[in-house]
Design goal:
Elements (H helix, E strand, L loop, with lengths): L7 H10 L2 H5 L1 H8 L15 H22 L8 E7 L5 H15 L4 E5 L3 H18 L6 E3 L3 E4 L1 H8 L12 E4 L19 E5 L7 H8 L9 E7 L7 H5 L8 E5 L9 H11 L4 H8 L13 H9 L10 E6 L8 E7 L2 E8 L4 H15 L3 E5 L4 H10 L4 E4 L14 H13 L8 H8 L16 H6 L6 H7 L9 H11 L1 E2 L2 E2 L10
Parallel strand pairs: 1-7, 1-8, 2-5, 2-6, 6-7, 9-12, 12-13
Antiparallel strand pairs: 3-4, 4-5, 9-10, 10-11, 14-15
């Protein structure tokens, strides 16, 4: 035993553990720390190929960051990597190795581990980390509990003693972090200049509010900041999905097809593909590591919207023109006036902070410009007042109340669900502009079928609780399907027949946009 209270064996391990070589390279640390080819690792000569690639990427990040720091250059970036994969490639094993590497090579550093729920964290994620610590050559350095890993008493004393390292161990741990969507701020870990690593397991199930809190922790001007998110890509919404889409410029991303991973059962994946089909959502999520075409509870899929955006306009002079109006309900909502002609959306205009008379003027301007066959107004919010005013002025307008009974009450629980259903069918052949807000509005609401299978849509209140905006533009498009409207050529023939008088024809004047 040395004067500092550490054995020669532990001193030798500690010297290697804290070497620059292992500080920079999680892969070299893993090759040293575990008994590859022995015991329960008998079938493995080292980490799998995809795990090695992640480790080498982290090493490259560290080398570049330290190089810039040494040159006195600003380094505001930190390592953020989202990994979507199919079933069983060894995500949990990589989580265990990386958490063990970080706490071993950065005295005083913090590792925070979260999962999609307490059962996953307690029974799967954290036990896997503990297993890799127990396998390690330095296992005697740490005490492992159900939801935390901390330095063993002798190691803590050595770190804090003047004869040892003379360092604080206050934030030196790996901790399982529970979260509550109602109180997200309670999730935040402590800022730590000795190094910070966050690991999100089954990250697709962690609410966006928790991601926001976690990001706020990474404010130290240090290179040792790592955030890794692992998940099966089960949902087409939420922060994990956005890592690969809206926020992809801020994240390194990997999508891993489990069939490409060595040492896995190919029969498992073949069975999934055979059972559900090559292009099924089950195969995409469980095998290919790709996001589903739509979430199970998503009413309109992003794929359907993208196809409508990519589809070319279809000119048809005889197609009816319908204006849809979704008046604002206050707050952050906008009044949206949308023009649809047959299978094409021609115009979308948004107005904020306007009163009843101003909105009426906007709608009248649109009617005079487009000369529609019908204007349909959502009666919610200011809509009832707008409708009354335009009816008084004899414009051809009709209102729709989303709470009305559906024409097909077996399939749809109310008028809102029904017009959205008609809009969904139209999107299969229609064209919409590449409008970011319209797209987000269309894919926002979830479907909520009752026990009989009748479809309702998620309320706007629930959407706002999930951090989504009111789908104003989509509602404006949806109301254009509230009433059947004849093709203009057919409508013209009907009017000609209706106006037949004796030996000649008299054309009625009711075809104007004022009636």
């Amino acid at each position: 035993m040395s004067e500092a209270g550490i054995t020669e064996k532990h001193a030798a391990i500690l010297e290697r553990m804290l070497s620059d070589d292992f500080y920079l390279s999680p892969l070299r640390f893993a090759m040293w720390a575990y008994g590859w080819g022995e015991g329960d690792l008998k079938s493995f000569s080292g980490p799998r190929k995809w795990q090695r690639e992640v480790m080498l990427d982290m090493e490259s990040y560290l080398k570049e960051g330290l190089k810039q720091k040494k040159a006195g250059l600003p380094f505001s970036d930190f390592y953020k990597h989202a990994i979507a994969s199919g079933r069983g490639p060894g995500k949990s094993a990589l989580v265990g190795m990386l958490a063990h590497w970080f706490i071993s090579t950065r005295i005083g550093g913090s590792v925070w581990v979260a999962a999609n729920g307490e059962p996953q964290l307690r029974t799967k994620t954290f036990p896997e980390i503990s297993k890799w610590v127990a396998r390690g050559i330095n296992s005697e350095f740490f005490d492992t509990n159900a939801m935390s890993i901390q330095p063993a008493t002798w190691f803590r004393n050595y770190i804090e003693s003047e004869a040892g390292l003379g360092r604080s161990t206050r934030y030196y741990y790996t901790s399982g972090q529970l979260w509550s969507e109602e109180t997200p701020d309670a999730f935040a870990g402590a800022h730590n200049f000795d190094g910070e690593m966050a690991i999100f397991d089954e990250a697709a199930g962690i609410p966006s509010a928790i991601w926001t809190v976690q990001e706020g922790v990474f404010t130290e001007d240090i290179v040792d900041r790592f955030w890794l998110a692992f998940s099966n890509p089960r949902s087409t919404e939420g922060a994990f999905f956005e890592c690969f889409h809206k926020d992809r410029k801020f994240w390194r991303t990997t999508q891993l097809d489990s069939r490409t991973v060595e040492g896995v059962s190919q029969a498992t994946y073949s069975n999934i593909i055979e059972k559900y089909g090559e292009d099924s959502d089950e195969a995409r999520v469980e095998v290919y590591g790709q996001f589903p075409k739509s979430s199970q509870d998503q009413f309109i899929s992003p794929a359907l919207v993208d196809e409508a955006i990519a589809r070319e306009k279809q000119d048809d002079d005889s197609a009816p023109i319908v204006i849809g109006v979704d008046p604002a309900r206050g707050g952050m909502d906008s009044t949206v006036i949308l023009v649809r002609k047959g299978r094409n959306v021609l115009s979308i205009k948004r107005y904020s902070g306007e009163d009843l008379m101003m909105i009426c003027g906007r709608v009248i301007d649109a009617i005079e410009e487009w000369k529609p066959d019908l204007t349909v107004i959502d009666e919610g919010g200011l809509g009832a007042g707008v409708l009354d005013r335009l009816v008084e002025q004899r414009y051809r307008v009709r209102g729709v109340n989303f709470g009305w009974k559906a024409s097909n009450p077996v399939m749809y629980g109310n008028k809102r669900a029904e017009v959205w259903g008609l809009m969904k069918d139209w999107l299969k052949k229609g064209h919409i502009p590449d409008d970011k807000d319209l797209k987000q509005d269309l894919v926002g609401p979830r479907k909520e079928p009752n026990s009989s299978g009748t479809i309702f849509l998620e309320t706007k209140k629930k959407m706002k609780a999930r951090g989504l905006a009111s789908p104003d533009a989509a509602d404006a498009l949806a109301v254009t399907f509230a009433y059947p409207i004849a093709n203009r050529e057919i409508d013209k023939l009907r009017k000609e027949r209706a106006s037949f008088r004796g030996n000649g024809y008299s054309y009625a004047q009711s075809g104007s946009w004022m009636s």
